[in-house]
Amino acid sequence: MVEEGAYWLAWSQISGIGPVLLRRLQQHFGTLAIAWKASKAQLREVEGFGFQTLEKVVQQRSRLHPENLFTKHQQENSHFWTPADTDYPRLLLETPSPPPILYYRGEVELQENLGQKPLVGIVGTRQPSEYGIRWTRQISTALAKNGFTVVSGMAEGIDTESHTAAMKAGGRTIAVLGTGVDVIYPHKNRDLYKQILTAGLVLSEYPTKTPPDRTHFPRRNRIIAGLSRAILVMEAPIKSGALITATYANEFGRDVYALPGRLDDNPSQGCLKLLNQGASFILKEIDELLTMLGAVPQLDVVEISPTSEQLSLADLSPELQRVMDAIACDSLPFDFIVQQTDLPVGSVSSALLQLELMGLVSQLPGMRYQKS
Fold it and tell me: Are 233 and 270 in contact (CB under 8 A)?
C-alpha cells in the first residue's frame, strides 16, 4: 500500500497545484490517495479547479507513479516531512497553505514540532541601523535564555543578528531558506549556516540544489509566520519582506510586535505602519515583552496516568469539554472542529493534543480526529 506522504509528493509535482489547492483537495476527499483516483467530475467539485487545471491533472497524473516517485525522492532528499507525517510542525499544518514537502537539515526537536516549545519569529531589514542591531541582539538573547526558539530567514542584517545572538546565548534557532537546504545564501553566511546545523534546524519547501530565486523569498515568509506563535519586526522599510511576514502572521492569527523608531528614519517606516495598524509595541522593558509572549497559548505536555483513558469527561476543563463535544463518533477534519467550537485555532490545536495524550482522541491521516 502506498503511504499517504507519497501522494502529497505526487500531487505537488503537477503544475498548477499549489499548497492551497492541495489543502482543499485533502479536506474535500479526506486523503490525497482518494483524490488521486478521483474523476474529473469529482475534482471539479473542489473550489479552484477550473478547466485548465483539470486538464493538467488528467495529463500529468497518468505519467506519475506515487510510490516510485517517493522512493526516488527519498534517495535525492534524505530528510523531509509531508503533512501526513506526525513530525510535521503542528502550527504550520494549521495554516491555509502548508508546504506539501518540508525539507530539513540539522537537529530536530520534537517539542518544537508539536508546539510544546514556543517559537518566535524575528524579521527585519537587510541593512539595519546600530539601534536595530542592538535591540535584535538583546531580545534574541533574552528569548533564548527563557526557552524560546528564534525563527528567521538567514538573510543579511536582522536575520543574521537574531540567529547569532540566540546561539551565543545557548539557545536554539531555526532558519527558513528560499533555496534548497543544502544551498547557502548569502554565501557570506556559510559559517552561520554550519553553526545553525549544530544548534538548530534549517528548513525549506524547495528540494536540494535549488538555487536562490527572487520569487522564493516572499513565499518562504509564510513559513516563518506559520511556524511562529508571534512575529517581531525589528526594523523594516515600507517595502520590505518583513512586512510580508507580518501580513501572513496576521492572516494566521499570530501576534505581531514592532520596534518603534523615529519618524524620519527610513528603516523604521514599516514598523511605524504596523504599529498604526494595531501591532503591539516592543517595549524597553524586555521582561514585560517576555511576559506578553509567554501569554501566547502554549501546548502543554500532559502527564498521562494509568487511568487517563478512563478519565471522566466531568474532569475536563471547559475548553477541553467543548472540543470533545464537537467530535462525533465519525472522524472530523480539524477545520470543522474549529468551526464547531468557535474557539481560536491555537486553542483547538492545544486541546486536541492534550486529549490525544489523555487517550480520549485519536488523530487520523489528513488532520482528522475521532474519539478513541
Answer: yes
Q: Answer whether CATH 3.20.20.240 is correct for domain 4-76.
A: no
pLDDT tens, position by position, 261-303: 888 888 899 999 999 999 999 977 888 888 888 755 444 443 4
- Residue 241 is predicted with a pLDDT of 93
Contact at 8 Å (CB) between 176 and 204? yes
Annotation: CATH topology of 102-294: Rossmann fold (3.40.50)
Q: Looking at the chain, which residues constitute the CATH 3.40.50.450 domain(s)?
A: 102-294
Strand residue runs (E) in 234-295:
255-258, 280-281
List strands edge to edge, sheet with 80-81: 80-81, 102-106, 200-204, 173-176, 149-152, 119-123, 230-233, 255-258, 280-281
pLDDT at 363 (0 to 100): 74
**Degrees, nearest 5: CA angle 9-13-19:** 75
Give CA 134 to chain center in angstroms: 27
The structural architecture, per CATH, of the domain 308-371 is Orthogonal Bundle (1.10)
Range(s) of the chain covered by CATH 1.10.150.20: 4-76
- Give the pLDDT confidence score for residue 357 in this predicted structure: 65
pLDDT score, position 188: 97
**Per-residue pLDDT tens for 214-231?**
999 999 999 999 999 999
Give the mean pLDDT of 243-254.
Answer: 95
**Alpha-carbon distances of 88 from 85, 91, 117, 227, 271, rounded to whole Å:** 6, 9, 14, 11, 32
Residue with cell 542592538: 134
